[in-house]
Write a structure and sequence with these properties.
The protein is built from 4 helices and 15 strands. It has 245 residues and is α+β, with helices and mostly antiparallel strands. The strands form 2 sheets. Strands 6-7-8-5-9-12-11-10 form an 8-stranded mixed sheet, covered by helices on one side. A hairpin with a 7-residue loop joins strand 11 and strand 12.
Length: 245
């Protein structure tokens, strides 16, 4: 048994408006499964597929107050492409952001609701990921996080070091999942989190038990009104275990 990373969930004051920004930024299609929820995925995409990690934007009145612990890195193919993408994103409503990055070859930006993301300089490792190079998670222990998520999902761990770890779908397609060491402490619920799903035919309850045995814990909230399970990884990051599809 194993789960697969199928999407990220992003809280938004205006899910439709923020959805339009990210759909235009990535060149993806846009839809809505319910009021207050906007779904983004590549045009013609057959969900779920590791070729893309989709985005669900869910309306929330809670304001953003701290730097997100999960963000997207966008891929580029040349220096000219990077400059063109940054300019296009500014035209869509993104702004430059300073998170203490200093002099780096990538460009740190924020979407119209202040969610940080990076436009990377060209890197060979991301040549075939699609527009999203990586989903990046801040953490205290990249080795430990790679150990947990490598067992929690069927993704392959590619690199592990004290300050950085990366993994990718076993099929070698789509974006990477990366863990970067940071000294920033987690504060409150993450506005952006990972959603994973068992494979069709697998037992969600058994999968939940397996994740708990690996180190996932309960967030301590009432979940009686939802059909999915909210769990917490070993560093306190919330994630959702969705129903298999």
């Amino acid at each position: 048994m194993a789960t697969r990373l199928v999407q990220i969930n992003m809280k938004a004051r205006d899910d439709a408006a923020l959805g339009r920004f990210w759909a235009a930024a990535l060149g993806w299609g846009i839809g809505s499964e319910a009021p207050g929820v906007t779904n983004l995925e590549p045009v013609g995409f057959a969900y779920p597929d590791p070729a893309a990690v989709c985005i669900d934007l869910v309306v929330s009145e809670e304001p953003k107050t701290v730097k997100n612990r999960v963000h997207l890195d966008l891929a580029t193919t040349s220096a000219a492409h990077q400059a063109e993408l940054v300019a296009r994103l500014k035209g869509l409503g993104a702004t430059l952001a300073d998170v203490g990055q200093g002099d780096v070859p990538w460009t740190v930006m924020a979407d119209p609701e202040g969610n940080e993301f990076c436009v990377l300089e060209p890197r060979e490792v991301y040549r075939d990921t699609g527009p999203v190079a990586a989903v990046v998670v801040d953490c205290a222990d990249p080795r430990g996080m790679a150990g947990f998520w490598g067992e929690a999902t069927d993704w392959t761990v590619h690199e592990v070091a004290d300050g950085f770890a990366s993994m990718r779908s076993a099929r070698g397609v789509g974006p990477y999942l990366e863990f970067i060491r940071t000294s920033d402490a987690k504060s409150g619920w993450n506005r952006v989190h990972l959603d994973v799903s068992p494979y069709r035919g697998d037992d969600p309850a058994a999968e939940e038990a397996r994740l708990r045995a690996l180190g996932a814990t309960d967030p301590g909230i009432d979940q009686s009104s939802i059909s999915w399970r909210i769990l917490v990884d070993p560093e306190g990051n919330e994630f959702c275990l969705l129903s298999p599809r």
